[in-house]
Amino acid sequence: MSELSINDKKWVVLNDNPTLTILEKILNNRQIIEPEDVEKFLNPNFNKLHDPYLMDNMDQAVMRIEKAIENQERIIIFGDYDVDGVTGTAILVLG
User: Fold this and answer.
1) Backbone angles phi, psi at 10, to 5 degrees
2) Where are the domains of the chain?
3) 36-75, pLDDT tens digit by residue?
């Protein structure tokens, strides 16, 4: 295993096979190996996303947001500070 030190933190690269590219190592670490799975991961399609209404109480959340918009209520958006958190929060705030 390879180790990199950045700001006193150790990163462990799980796959140190020198014949693989960085992308191939990342995909292997995520267990994305089959060509069709690699294609899906690298070229996502909005039409292939799971139905958000499969989440518990999604219909109630949507109705509450619609009501808040209709009544011109303020809506607070919380997000965290990782890449998907910041991106998701920005999309909600700017959308």
Assistant:
1) -100, 125
2) 1-49, 51-95
3) 999 999 999 988 888 999 999 999 999 999 999 999 999 9
